[in-house]
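Quick start: read one record
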Amino acid sequence: MSETRDQYPFVPFQAVSFSPDESMERARSFYHFMNRRRSVRDFSDRPVPRELIEQLIMTASTAPSGAHKQPWTFCAVSDPDIKRKIREAAEKEEYDNYHGRMTEEWLRDLAPLGTDWHKPFLEIAPWLIVVFKKVYDVADGEKRKNYYVNESVGLATGFLLAAIHHAGLVALTHTPSPMNFLQKILGRPENERPFLLIPVGYPTPDARVPELKRKAPEEVIAWY
């Protein structure tokens, strides 16, 4: 038997199956539910239990990954001092972005969304989930290669956003650039690089979002 089979013994697959009609209804219902998911910037400081955040992250960690390396670390931050440091560092980078780094075209595209360099939600949201990608692993003092790292971590992040919405919470995919300050503030090892910063919590009662229109099927699907 191969080394891989020794490490991961193959077991019978426990398939989940539905009738065609039920599959269609579940697919349609899930689409309508997920279509209500929005990026939110108006966060309440209403507490969210640590156990709930753990369950959401463990759902994210069920995502497929190259050679099953699971090249991710999810840092869940609720400490007010650390959140303040993250906000200060993020706003510094974002100020520079909005005042010289971003192109005029980029700024025009952002204008309808009403965003700027101020990021108060980084302190208000009860949790920040900072997603790190492991560009390589370290075992017994030696580097071990990871595969399709960006793709794998991207998939896990998608699972995480779906899980957050499923639990009745809201989130924002925040990407201050560059994000190296996250590695420093959180003391992460050299093999981990920041991938995404996600505030998580409940919306304020008066939260508002842009009235966006998502692309139609003919714009996103090519049938062959």
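The chain has one domain: 44-202.
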